């Protein structure tokens, strides 16, 4: 005799779905799992940080490279590098070399908005701070917290003329007795960011005397040399830094400085 088919009628169906089987962890297993997650996170975090830092360095180096090419194009047109500080007829500071560089960074429209007869913080020029070109942005600075701030500073000798960039006058490359690729022109100084239009940079002496910054993204910073090449230099190696900040050959031409 054949057994009745349970699907012949609703009344005949007595089957029930089997309950799902959930995996139950013991307390020890949960602890082991959490420890494994923490170990994996600890192993992956340095690699992630290294990748992030490498990306920031590439970004910064590319910006400095663009600035270096623009400085060379300025030199090709005018025969000298721009002065670090643009002054009026009485010698009062007006604005930075970064403003003069705008047409060579494809920022002619922004350049045309400046009143070049007024200082950077005048009623006309001050609002333009917010329009800082991306080339002056640092990947190590949060633009929302540091609007209009740049960390790319010219190296300017306040005691003489042994740097490529001079304070209030331009300098021709053929006046420089040392190899352009051995002398710093612009450095990235993350902890001394300035408003990009403000005529403020950094002296080689101040740069050397700064305490080193270790164990973070800033342990190295980018240096733009006179030949428009860019390299990364450790902040905790003052001898390596000292060697590229000033052109020592200027001393032979009568330039003196406390740097020696």
UniProtKB/TrEMBL annotation:
The keyword Zinc-finger does not apply. It comes from the Bacteria. It comes from Bremerella volcania. The chain crosses the membrane at residues 22-47. Residues 51-133 form the DUF1559 domain. The keyword Transmembrane helix applies. Pfam families: SBP_bac_10. This is DUF1559 domain-containing protein. Keywords: Membrane, Transmembrane, Transmembrane helix.
């Amino acid at each position: 005799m054949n057994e009745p088919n349970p699907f012949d009628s609703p009344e005949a169906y007595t089957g029930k779905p089997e309950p799902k089987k959930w995996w139950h962890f013991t307390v020890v297993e949960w602890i082991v799992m959490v420890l494994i997650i923490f170990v994996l996170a600890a192993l992956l975090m340095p690699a992630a940080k290294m990748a992030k830092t490498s990306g920031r360095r590439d970004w910064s180096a590319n910006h400095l490279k663009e600035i270096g090419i623009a400085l060379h194009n300025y030199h090709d047109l005018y025969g000298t590098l721009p002065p670090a500080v643009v002054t009026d007829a009485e010698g009062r500071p007006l604005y930075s070399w970064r403003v003069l560089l705008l047409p060579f960074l494809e920022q002619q429209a922004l350049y045309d908005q400046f009143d070049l007869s007024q200082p950077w913080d005048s009623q006309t020029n001050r609002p333009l701070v917010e329009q800082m070109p991306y080339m002056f942005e640092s990947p190590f600075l949060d633009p929302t917290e540091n609007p209009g701030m740049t960390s790319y500073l010219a190296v300017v000798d306040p005691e003489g003329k042994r740097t490529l960039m001079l304070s209030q006058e331009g300098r021709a490359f053929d006046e420089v007795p040392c190899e352009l690729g051995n002398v710093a022109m612009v450095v990235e100084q993350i902890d001394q960011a300035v408003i990009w239009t403000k005529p403020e940079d950094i002296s080689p002496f101040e740069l050397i005397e700064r305490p080193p910054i270790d164990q973070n993204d800033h342990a190295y910073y980018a240096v733009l040399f006179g030949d428009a090449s860019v390299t990364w230099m450790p902040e905790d190696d003052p001898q390596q830094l000292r060697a590229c900040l000033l052109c020592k050959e200027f001393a032979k031409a009568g330039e003196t400085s406390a740097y020696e």
